[in-house]
């Protein structure tokens, strides 16, 4: 019997002319539905054996009929991107939706969107990548989105193979961090007004990610035990849990980080649930871009310090701790990494030779 009962319906599964055909049909489990699906299977077999497409017209959405009569060629990459997006988007975070949409609209749609799924070749992507000025990271991100679209079509049995699997990932060069020196840190903090000086002092001496700094609440701090519980992250204005399970952690606070909090407690900026708030609006930070543009960048320019993104505060913390002989596993835990592999890869030259 080639009609099998499965959860939520039935599976039509048969082989004809050395070709296997398979399709899931959602239907209730009763005699009437089973009979209908069995009749549907008979129509499929007869239509395929007689090469008669007209008998199958009323099953135009059938995966079996699509496969038998090459209807899958009617789908373009853009068509299936919409199907993939609709199927998966509820599982994605806001930032993932935005990132995938940007990569698709910028790179995939204008280059291959009008191609039928079966027309796309791996060499087309490689040719585009070889002529592109994009970084290897961006090329790989575009490849990932394209791969997910084709993987969806393959799993739906619309295509027989996924050509993107033949595209090798491009080697990404690891950019070595450019931490700030102790003198630079001192000059920056001295030049910043309250409460920006406390914000960046805490950043330099905890290594927290930007979103973790924005999301930090007073309830997350335990100054008696000299720790901070990292439980919240702010990304694109949305509060959510940190990016990975390892990022939900308790960090030991450096004395200079505690000093920043104690200094902040003497100001007027502590009546909010967040530790760091925008002094201009007295509201929570939703984005860090304003801090970078209007506080951080002008300060470095004024001091004639080589510009680096604020994220280098995190790199500075890691390099300082490792240079002081801290155990790499301890540093990894502090920064929210699952193991010390990333620490070894990114900060290798700062690891004390005595380790």
Question: Which short descriptors sum up this protein?
Answer:
11% strand, elongated, DNA polymerase, domain 1, three-stranded antiparallel beta sheet, 3 domains, hpI Integrase, Chain A, 355 residues, 46% helix, mainly alpha
Write up this protein:
By secondary structure, the protein is mostly helical. The chain has three domains: 3-69, no CATH class; 74-166, Tyrosine recombinase, N-terminal domain (DNA polymerase, domain 1, Orthogonal Bundle), CATH 1.10.150.130; 182-350, hpI Integrase, Chain A, CATH 1.10.443.10. The chain is built from 14 helices and ten strands. It has helices spanning 31-49, 63-68, 77-88, 94-112, 122-131, 136-155, 182-191, 196-204, 210-215, 255-264, 289-303, 312-323, 328-335, 341-347; strands spanning 3-6, 9-16, 19-26, 221-222, 227-230, 233-235, 238-240, 249-252, 277-278, 283-284. The strands form four sheets. It has a three-stranded antiparallel sheet. Strand 2 (9-16) and strand 3 (19-26) form a beta hairpin. Helix 7 (182-191) packs antiparallel against helix 8 (196-204). The N and C termini lie far apart (66 Å). 28% of the residues are buried.
